[in-house]
């Protein structure tokens, strides 16, 4: 077996950034649906989250890499009709959008869910005990077409906190996990469920279905290509595979020389990359990142790769937060150089900057100008007329100066 490849931490960063689509310059020409489709195919999975403090999180990764694009383009890819649809929703990395090309590779997970395996215990128990309700809900979808859980609910009491689902919502989620229904569209953020055969194109459904082992190998390979360099845990996390499955597939792929073992400077665990992986000499990135961006969603890897500790503080009591409610890391060059607490105040037409925190190495003048330009582009993309700084920190004053120097936008 060949000796492991040795990578410096700087090489590992560049390899990861390039794999995630940050090595290319953002487009200045109008961004088409085909550009979004190519990027989602490359990433393999885009996490969905309900928090709308800035914008729904699944829109942000594409903006971070491509620049300003029409939200409607992603909506068409995810929930459009006919050949417009290129994506589907399923449990990839949590609730996710994935390219239709990966649908056959997820069928084993759907079959597993139908057996009550690999899904939340509460949902698995519901599937065992509530088959009459599930059949009633499935019949309604068959007869009426795409439905939201609210239109089927028979509950009388008001819904409680998260996960306080009606029995109909439980039934739809069980059917969704089992692959019998899928998300045909959304009404606001509410899922509209329809039979998978009426949503997933025939050309995809009729493809040969790989068995569990071959499907998992495909997912590990896709994760390796999307991450650039990663440990077994990193690869496993990308599509949320079980440890025993991930470890077995990784051994097979290394033995078959489809993946190469490597050692990254400062990493305790061995890493893996594609044998043909090419490391850029330099990456000049500049982007605000969603908290759920695939570059940083595995927090341990983010610390190993960028020396950047990141935790989401949405569910932390306000007086215990360190950085803010909805904080976006700022990628500058080959490092994460700052974090910014942002809010879209739509009624006032402004992008509110509640906090600016530079990392230890800080941002030089060019870096602060780059952050200002990113905020300008973000505000324009969201249709917000101005930026309001609410942060008393010195970094915010430097940002105010940088925004004033950026003549491409409206006054602060």
Question: Would you write up a description of this structure?
Answer:
The protein is α+β, with helices and mostly antiparallel strands. 40% of the residues lie in helices and 18% in strands. It has helices at 9-19, 33-43, 60-66, 71-79, 107-114, 121-129, 131-144, 149-152, 167-177, 196-199, 202-205, 212-227, 232-238, 243-255, 299-306, 365-381, 394-405; strands spanning 5-7, 46-47, 87-92, 94-99, 181-187, 190-195, 230-231, 260-264, 271-273, 285-288, 327-333, 335-345, 350-358, 386-389. The strands form 4 sheets. It has a 5-stranded mixed sheet with strand order 10-11-12-13-14. A hairpin with a 1-residue loop joins β11 and β12. 40% of the residues are buried. Mean pLDDT is 93; it is low at 159-163 and 408-412.
């Amino acid at each position: 077996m060949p000796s492991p490849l040795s990578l410096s931490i700087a090489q590992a960063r560049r390899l990861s950034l390039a794999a995630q689509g940050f090595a290319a310059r953002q487009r200045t020409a109008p961004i088409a649906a085909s550009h979004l489709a190519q990027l989602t195919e490359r990433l393999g999975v885009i996490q969905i989250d309900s928090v709308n403090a800035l914008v729904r999180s699944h829109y942000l990764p594409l903006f971070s890499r491509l620049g300003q694009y029409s939200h409607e383009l992603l909506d068409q890819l995810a929930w459009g009709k006919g050949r417009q649809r290129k994506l589907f929703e399923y449990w990839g990395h949590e609730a996710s959008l994935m390219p239709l090309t990966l649908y056959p590779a997820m069928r084993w997970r759907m079959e597993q869910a139908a057996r009550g395996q690999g899904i939340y215990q509460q949902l698995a128990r519901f599937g065992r005990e509530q088959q009459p309700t599930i059949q009633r809900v499935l019949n309604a979808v068959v007869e009426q077409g795409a439905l939201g859980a609210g239109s089927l609910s028979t509950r009388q009491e008001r819904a409680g906190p998260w996960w306080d689902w009606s029995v109909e919502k439980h039934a739809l989620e069980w059917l969704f996990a089992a692959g019998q229904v899928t998300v045909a569209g959304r009404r606001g953020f509410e899922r509209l469920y329809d039979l998978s055969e009426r949503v997933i194109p025939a050309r995809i459904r009729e493809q040969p279905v790989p068995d569990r082992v071959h499907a998992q190998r495909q997912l590990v390979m896709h994760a390796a290509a999307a991450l650039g360099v990663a440990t077994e845990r990193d690869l496993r996390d990308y599509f949320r595979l079980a440890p025993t499955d991930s470890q077995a597939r990784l051994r097979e792929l290394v033995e078959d020389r489809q993946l190469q073992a490597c050692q990254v400077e400062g990493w305790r665990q061995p890493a893996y990359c594609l044998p043909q992986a090419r490391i850029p000499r330099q990456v000049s990135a500049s982007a605000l990142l969603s908290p759920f961006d695939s570059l940083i969603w595995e927090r341990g890897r983010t610390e190993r790769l960028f020396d950047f500790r990141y935790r989401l503080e949405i569910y932390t009591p306000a007086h215990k937060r360190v950085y803010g409610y909805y904080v976006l890391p700022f990628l500058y060059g080959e490092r994460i150089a700052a974090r910014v607490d942002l809010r879209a105040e739509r009624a006032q037409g402004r992008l509110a900057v509640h906090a600016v925190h530079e990392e230890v190495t800080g941002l030089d003048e060019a870096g602060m100008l780059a952050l200002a330009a990113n905020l300008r582009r973000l505000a324009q993309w969201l249709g917000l007329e101005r930026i309001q700084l609410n942060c008393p920190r010195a970094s915010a004053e430097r940002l105010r100066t940088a925004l004033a120097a950026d003549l491409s936008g409206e006054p602060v």
